[in-house]
Structures are given as C-alpha cells and as structure tokens.
Amino acid sequence: MRSATSWLRCGSAALAMLALLALPGAPVDAEEAEGKLRLLVIGAHPDDPDKSGGTMARYVEAGHTVKFVSLTNGDAGHQSLGGGPLARIRTAEAKCAGEAIDSEYITLDNHDGELMPTLEMRRQVITVIREFRPDMVFTPRVDDYHPDHRATAELVRDAAYMVTVPNVVAKTPHLDKNPIFVNVEDRFAKPTPFDPVIVVDVGDVIEKKLDMYHCHTSQMYEWLPYNRGGLDQVPEGDAARRAWLGKRLKAGWRRTADRFRDKLIELYGEEKGSKIEFAEAFEVSEYGYMPPKEQLMKLFPFYSESAE
Fold this sequence. Notes:
Strand order of the largest sheet: 3-2-1-4-5-7-6
Order of helices and strands: HHEHEHEHEHEEHHHHHEH
Structural class: alpha/beta
Distance between the termini: 30 Å
Number of strands: 7
Largest sheet: 7 strands, mixed
C-alpha cells in the first residue's frame, strides 16, 4: 500500500476525495479511508481493456487499484494458432500488459467469437464486479463492429443495478451501492455518436500504454496485421516492432485529443488543453450510479483548479 503522499501529488484531489466520501449515493469501499479508488476495466478480448490503459496508469501512479478483465480467452484471434495453445498465449500476454502498469489482468475461460449476453454470462459478470467491489467500471458501448464487443457491453449494462440485488447470484455478497459505469471511446455514430464528459491527458504515461499493447505480440504483430493485409509490413526485432507499433497507435491517440479538443480546453484550461497531444475519452452510462458533475470531477482528479 502506498503512502498518503501518492495521493497528495494530485494537488487538491486529496481533500476533494474526502468530500466525495461524505456524499450520499457514492460507492463505498474498504479503501475509502485513504481516499483510494478501485477501477475495473472489462473488455471482450485480451488487449481490449488496454484502450483505457493511459488513464488507468495515471490512477495506479496515484495509488489507486486497477483490475483488467477480458471476458473471453482470445482463443480465435489468430491466422494460424487457435484453441488452448492460443488461449494460453493470450492469457500470458494479458498478464504482461497488466504488469506494465502494475495492475492485475485476467482472462475468463470463454470462447473468443462466441460471447453471448446469456443469463449464465451475466452471472459471471455480476460475480466479477461484486468480488472486486469497484467504484467505477469501464466498458465499451453496445454499438460496435464486433459481436463480442457488443455482447460485453450488453452484459455489463445488464449487470448494472443487479449487482445490488441480494437474491441474484446470492452466493456472492451483493454491493451496497451501484458503481459508476463508464463507457470508453468509439467512433460509431448510430444510433448516437460518442459524447464524452471526461477527456484525460495521457501524454505523461503514453509509453506505458504502448508497453501494454507491445505485450500482445500475437495480436499487434501477427493477427491484426494479417487481418488487415499488412503482415509483410511488420519489422523484425523487438525494438523495431515497438517503434513501428508506436507510430501507428499514437496517431490514433492524437486523433482522440484533436477530436475532443474543446472538451480538453474546458477541463484543463486554454493554455494546457490546447497543447495536449494524447488523450482518452469517457462517457458516463445511465445504467449505474449517475454522479453530479462536481462528484465526477473528484473521481477523475486530473484537472487543475483553474479549469474546474
């Protein structure tokens, strides 16, 4: 457990967090006394949760607890490998990615490409959430190109509220308060475009985020390049591969900052917000606890007082 000085690095956030704990309806956790948060990131496949890896790295640096969960074992995502051998590779890659930011990263033993929003799977998700007891749960929205992504979003949405019902999955103690459910960025416009209330500067931790993706060798340097018709473009050697991957991924992370530049300026102020190079963006789902803006800003303690 880190000392209180880890939290104090966030400036006024320590006092803000104490105020948050007194607000009615706020999630309750054993770490509250030290102003620590618990963040749960749920994705469909190993590497999907890494999309919010920069923000999670910032939370970890401030002494909070982050856990990544993949609802499938990734056993279908490759052009030549599959089944158990691929699942073991991807589980190890996920563990490596979590270690890159000092966090736990687990994969559930469900088949890649076959995820469905069934009652059995909902029970699994409810159990995962209850056992970790998060303040916030991060997940994709329900509209997405991949059926596993859509199923993950629906499963988490359906688990919201039900995590507080004692007679549902009764063997796992229910939560006293519903967590805040947060959606990560996407570019799908129908039925509604992504409209964030929070955009986080991740420039200081962008290399850590890249380290996470670099761990997913089977995806970043094998399956995805093959699927896109560019396997012959992947260089040889660890350093060359990481540089190649960084060039590709950082371009997208820059686009997020540019896409939500007005929101960055609103949150960070004109001087800083106009210069931020890399960002991650988040919506708050209506299916969990809906915090007022003041409380939400205390849960994302990354902004200067002048920009509040």
